[in-house]
Amino acid sequence: MPSIFISGGASGIGRATALRFLSEGWTVGVYDVNQAALDELTAEHPQIVTGILDVRDFGQWEAALADFATHTGGTLTVLDNNAGVLFSGDLDEVTPEQIKLQIDIDALGVTYGAKAALPYLTGVEGAHLVNISSASAIYGQPGIATYSAAKFYVSGFTEALELEWEKHGIRVVAIWPLWAKTALAETDAKSTRTLGVNITPEEVAEQVWNSVHPGVQVPFLPRVHYSVGTLTTLLSNSSKFAPRSVVRLINRFTSQ
């Protein structure tokens, strides 16, 4: 039976992803720092394996994956690096503690997760590492500068591992949602008003599902990045084909 381990999966996009894969008969592990949310998830879906995980601690990653592996025969099909945190505000308004927390969870935690999961993914048919990036990695976003920069890191990290882990038979992808209807979007970031909060956690979960079931791929042109929603796709394509000055103007408008 295929298996998926989801960090920060007790609510929002992670929870929706857990239920999407559970509905297909997968063995699902959800590990989070929110014990109350984990208890609620377990009460509703007792077949989901749950546990505590602070993604900033590599030792906890090792312990959580070892625990989940006792339910899967010692292997893992998909690691979903889902845990994330966001604090909005201009840089002079964000506290040093909030800056550090975003980098530690959104960048360091993703890196730790990938490293800890590698032994469990290696040699498994259909093995995937899924990293949750963001449309804020298309162009640096004022008002959420640290979060945006961390998601640039996630995208670059994904591209590097997509090449590096080819020898292990592990496919590495990134999911790019715009603002989704989760607690993360409960912010005063200006782009939430300009672009709206229209994507549901279920839409993101569906794209996670699609990303690990890619079908036929063009040789030497693997798909690495998966946008969520038409607007995200349009913004992403504009950044690839429009002059950088135009991309800057678009992002200046959306962040005002």
Automatic annotation (TrEMBL):
Family annotation (PANTHER family): OXIDOREDUCTASE SADH-RELATED, RETINOL DEHYDROGENASE-RELATED
UniProt-recorded name of the protein: Short-chain dehydrogenase/reductase SDR
Entry keyword annotation includes Secreted: no
UniProt-listed NCBIfam families: PRK08267.1
Oxidoreductase among keywords: yes
Molecular function (Gene Ontology), one example: oxidoreductase activity
Keywords: Oxidoreductase
Matching InterPro entries: NAD(P)-bd_dom_sf, SDR_fam
Stated family: Belongs to the short-chain dehydrogenases/reductases (SDR) family.
Source organism: Tsukamurella paurometabola (strain ATCC 8368 / DSM 20162 / CCUG 35730 / CIP 100753 / JCM 10117 / KCTC 9821 / NBRC 16120 / NCIMB 702349 / NCTC 13040)
Domain of life of the source: Bacteria
